[in-house]
């Protein structure tokens, strides 16, 4: 920990994955000074308050900051790349701070501090002493809180709980005392899946678990988001999704194609998913989750001792079940704004489902360019998806960003070599079965896919790519 300096080049608000990956890329290419401010006591953002059995959704191989590996690229018992536990993620970010950022002499860190920005006035306020320090920021304030969402430990429940009913956040599940004769898992997202898998993995009978899911999500099979030596399987799945995006005749047809090629999957084959938030689960885990057959569809309004009150009906529960609240929204989804503005950088998604990568990319672009318009062209922001249809927009945004990177050879090189890019090193795998064909598909079908996704997401809207028409984009894609 260090004091706030009176003047810095950059002031980064938030020492979570976004602020850390941005800072790492920035100081890797410049001599600029950076002050990172966070309300929490240590770097790592929400991982400081996460539930004890959490793991990354994705392999550790491409999470964190660009200059340092997370984990050892071990293949775990599932045959896939290891996923760090919450504690490992925290230890990693703390080591990045203590062993890399602070010794660099470029970075200072003010934990337990609020950053307040009031016009030109920027102050850092200690949460322990209320001391206020004014800071002059020479270049930019970096808002690394865009994705700061509600997590189970901190969110406010949107439903009432009667005094004689039992409802705990997922964080407290590890303190269960054996008095519950059943479990009611509340929520349809990845946190709820983690709770169900944890209960099943500890021998709880699926028949004593009730799962209340307001809407079902589309899920990315973890098998398709592997990197490094398994990057071929990622590319083959990605190419199939490009093909589906190019050929689909409607949004419904697109999701049918994405499902049949294995790019997306769902919990209940008989129930149409309405949500896409990037939940990533392995195929065996999905099979395990399907063993829970007591599924209640609806949004919870109140938990009473003997029943759950939903928007439109009540469901009786027997005995004294433990309700597990997994309804926190996890990722915030504010409206996008330009990433680069005068004196301000707002870290936002650019490429879908790659938080660390996006923050590092923005750091690289900031460290290599002065022209704001050029910087924004290379990092078009894309709001995190929520609904199933948002998959279409988000994929289109990602593909548009890809066409723009092709116009900047150094950015393209950076992308190809970044450890945070799931697809890095793909060219070394062209001899593997299916990989050369998949690369060919990506090269030849990306432009038609981009055009078709524009029609599917909004039939009235033409493709708005400042970098050129779809056919020009296609020409560039074919050359890459
Ligand atoms: C259980 C779980 C698993 C996940 N797994 C993955 C995964 O595998 N891959 C992936 O890409 N994403 C994953 N995510 C998404 C996750 O949100 C990101 O990975 C990432 O950790 C978010 O980092 P962040 O820096 O954007 O936000 P945060 O971690 O929320 O950090 C923002 C920080 O800003 C600080 N802050 C806010 N306001 C102020 C202020 N005014 N002054 C000072 N400080 C302030 C907060 O204290 C906080 O520490 C997961 C999310 C959850 C909940």
Please describe what this structure looks like.
32% of the residues lie in helices and 17% in strands. By secondary structure, the chain is of the alpha/beta class. Among the domains are: 7-149 and 331-378, FAD/NAD(P)-binding domain (3-Layer(bba) Sandwich), CATH 3.50.50.60; 160-219 and 265-325, FAD/NAD(P)-binding domain, CATH 3.50.50. The protein has a six-stranded mixed beta sheet with strand order 3-2-1-7-20-19. The radius of gyration is 23 Å and the shape is globular. The structure holds flavin-adenine dinucleotide (FAD). Flavin-adenine dinucleotide binds next to α1 and β4. Flavin-adenine dinucleotide is lined by residues 13-19, 37-40, 45-46, 50, 54, 56-58, 63, 114-115, 144-145, 147-148, 151, 330-331, 355.
- Note the overall shape: globular
In CATH, what is the class of one domain? Alpha Beta
Largest sheet: 6 strands, mixed
Average pLDDT, rounded to a whole number, is 92
Radius of gyration: 23 Å
Number of strands: 20
Nutshell version of this structure?
This protein is an alpha/beta fold. It has helices spanning 17-29, 86-101, 190-201, 231-247, 251-260, 283-289, 355-368, 372-378, 390-405, 409-417, 435-457, 470-479; strands at residues 7-13, 34-37, 107-110, 113-118, 121-126, 132-134, 136-143, 160-161, 166-169, 183-186, 209-213, 220-221, 280-281, 294-297, 300-303, 307-310, 314-316, 322-325, 340-341, 344-346. Helix 1 packs parallel to helix 2, helix 1 packs parallel to helix 7 and helix 4 packs parallel to helix 11 (435-457).
């Amino acid at each position: 920990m260090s004091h706030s300096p009176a003047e810095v080049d950059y002031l980064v608000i938030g020492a979570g994955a976004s602020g850390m990956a941005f800072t790492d890329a920035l100081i890797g290419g410049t001599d600029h000074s950076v002050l990172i401010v966070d309300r929490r006591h240590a770097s790592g953002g929400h991982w400081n308050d996460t539930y004890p059995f959490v793991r990354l959704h994705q392999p550790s191989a491409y999470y964190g900051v660009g200059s340092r590996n997370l984990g050892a690229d071990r293949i775990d018992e599932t045959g896939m790349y290891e996923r760090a536990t919450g504690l490992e993620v925290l230890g990693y970010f703390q080591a990045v701070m203590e062993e890399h950022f602070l010794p660099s002499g470029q970075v200072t860190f003010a934990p337990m501090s609020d950053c307040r920005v009031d016009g030109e006035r920027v102050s850092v306020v200690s949460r322990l002493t209320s001391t206020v320090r004014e800071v002059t920021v020479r270049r930019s304030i970096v808002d690394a809180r865009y994705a700061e969402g509600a997590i189970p430990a901190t969110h406010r429940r949107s439903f009432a709980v009667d005094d004689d009913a039992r409802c705990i956040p997922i964080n407290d599940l590890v303190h269960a005392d054996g008095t519950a004769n059943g479990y009611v898992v509340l929520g349809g997202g990845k946190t709820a899946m983690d709770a169900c898998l944890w209960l099943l993995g500890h021998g709880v009978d699926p028949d004593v678990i009730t799962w209340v899911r307001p809407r079902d999500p589309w899920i990315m099979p973890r098998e398709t988001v592997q990197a490094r030596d398994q990057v071929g399987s990622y590319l083959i799945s990605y190419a199939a999704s490009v093909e589906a995006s190019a050929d689909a005749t409607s949004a419904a047809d697109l999701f049918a194609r994405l499902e049949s090629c294995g790019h997306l999957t769902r919990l209940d084959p008989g129930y149409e998913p309405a949500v896409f938030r990037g939940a990533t689960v392995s195929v065996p885990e999905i099979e395990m989750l399907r063993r829970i057959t007591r599924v209640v569809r609806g949004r919870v309004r109140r938990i009473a001792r003997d029943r759950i009150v939903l928007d439109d009906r009540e469901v009786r529960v027997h005995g004294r079940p433990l309700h597990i609240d997994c309804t926190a929204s996890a990722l915030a989804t504010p409206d996008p704004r330009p990433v680069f503005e005068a004196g301000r950088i707002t870290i936002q998604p650019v490429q879908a489902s790659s938080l660390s990568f996006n923050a590092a990319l923005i750091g690289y672009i900031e460290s290599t360019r002065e022209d704001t318009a050029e910087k924004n062209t290379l990092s078009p922001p894309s709001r995190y998806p929520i609904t199933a249809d948002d998959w279409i927009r988000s994929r289109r945004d990602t593909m548009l960003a890809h066409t723009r990177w092709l116009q900047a050879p150094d950015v393209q090189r950076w992308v190809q070599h970044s450890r945070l890019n799931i697809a890095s090193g793909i060219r070394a795998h062209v001899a593997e079965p299916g990989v050369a064909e998949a690369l060919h598909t990506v090269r030849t079908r990306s432009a038609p896919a981009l055009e078709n996704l524009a029609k599917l997401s909004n039939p009235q809207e033409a493709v708005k790519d400042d970098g050129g028409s779809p056919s020009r984009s296609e020409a560039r894609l074919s050359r890459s």
